[in-house]
């Protein structure tokens, strides 16, 4: 009796890919891969051949680059028809360039724009024309924050409050920060010589001599002191750029009990700010060394 072969057919060499369901993309795919066939079983396009996966990858990359070019051209046309006129924005041939005084608000807004990049060499942000519509929506907040942080504007604010209680409180806070001390629960001290997030930024704790911290001072300059909690002063130092770059950020923001305690594992945003400050300190030292 002749038996029927029920074994699975031997799979052919090749690779599969899914495409958007539009006629033009499929037509261009068929033109690039004339041997490609639709597989109902795989619910995908099958391209035979040992190098099929690499060839499909190159084709998809070329298609994506072409779409980006088209999107940039479209965004460039929109910008030319209705440009943003601002001293903080320059329209370069390839990208839009943003240069503002430092502002946390500006940084947070630009980071939400797709494909925005920080150019460390030129000290400015670049935004591709394809992201112009998103930039337009966020520009009022970006420009307002930049104007608030202009040196003249900040100087005017300081002069306006000079001699007031607000000015005295600001000076007292500055004097306290220069002491490079931080309150820590006496029964829950932070680890030493590693980057830690605090209410004054990312610091490296050095140690403590056990001096008690006045709860009134803690609440006035650092964070609300917990009733009944005993705090001691811990010395700290800022981290070097190398140390901060080597620090892995926490994947989650600090929990409420960590905020109440006063220290936690730093987040990526906190480390970014600390690294920026460390770069500024390094540049100042280099200029001073060069002048000397």
Description:
This protein has 292 residues and is α+β, with helices and mostly antiparallel strands. It folds into three domains: 14-78, no CATH class; 83-148; 176-291, no CATH class. Helix content is 45%, strand content 20%. It has ten helices and twelve strands. The chain has helices at 23-32, 52-81, 104-111, 132-148, 151-160, 165-177, 215-221, 241-245, 256-261, 268-291; strands at 14-17, 37-39, 44-48, 89-91, 95-98, 117-119, 124-128, 181-185, 195-198, 201-212, 231-237, 263-264. The strands form three sheets. The chain has a five-stranded antiparallel β-sheet. It has a four-stranded antiparallel β-sheet with strand order 4-5-7-6, with no helix packed on it. A three-stranded antiparallel β-sheet has the order 1-3-2, covered by helices on one side. α3 (104-111) runs antiparallel to α4. It is elongated and about 80 Å long. Mean pLDDT is 86; it is low at 1-10.
């Amino acid at each position: 009796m002749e038996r029927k072969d029920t074994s699975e057919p031997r799979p052919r060499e090749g690779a599969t890919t899914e495409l958007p369901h539009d006629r033009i993309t499929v037509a261009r795919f068929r033109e690039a891969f004339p041997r490609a066939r639709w597989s109902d079983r795989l619910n995908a396009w099958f391209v035979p051949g040992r190098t099929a996966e690499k060839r499909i990858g190159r084709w998809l990359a070329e298609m994506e680059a072409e779409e980006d070019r088209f999107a940039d051209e479209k965004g460039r046309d929109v910008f030319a028809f209705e440009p943003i006129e601002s001293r903080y924005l320059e329209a370069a041939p390839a990208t839009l360039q943003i240069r503002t005084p430092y502002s946390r608000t500006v940084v947070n807004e630009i980071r939400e724009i797709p494909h925005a990049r920080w150019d460390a060499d030129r000290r400015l942000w670049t935004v591709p024309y394809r992201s112009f519509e998103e930039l337009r929506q966020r520009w009022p907040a970006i420009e307002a924050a930049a104007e608030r942080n202009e040196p003249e504007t900040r100087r005017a604010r300081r002069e306006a409050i000079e001699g007031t209680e607000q000015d005295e409180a600001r000076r007292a806070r500055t004097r306290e920060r220069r002491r490079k001390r931080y309150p820590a629960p006496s029964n829950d001290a932070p680890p030493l010589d590693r980057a830690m997030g605090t209410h004054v930024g990312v610091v490296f704790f050095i140690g403590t001599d056990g001096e008690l911290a006045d709860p009134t001072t803690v609440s006035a300059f650092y964070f609300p002191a917990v009733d009944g909690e005993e705090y001691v002063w811990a010395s700290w130092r800022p981290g070097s750029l190398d140390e901060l770059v080597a620090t892995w950020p926490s994947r989650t923001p600090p929990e409420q009990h960590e905020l109440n305690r006063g220290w936690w594992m730093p987040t990526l945003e906190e480390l970014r700010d600390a690294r920026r400050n460390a770069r500024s300190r390094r540049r100042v030292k280099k200029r001073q060394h060069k002048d000397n």
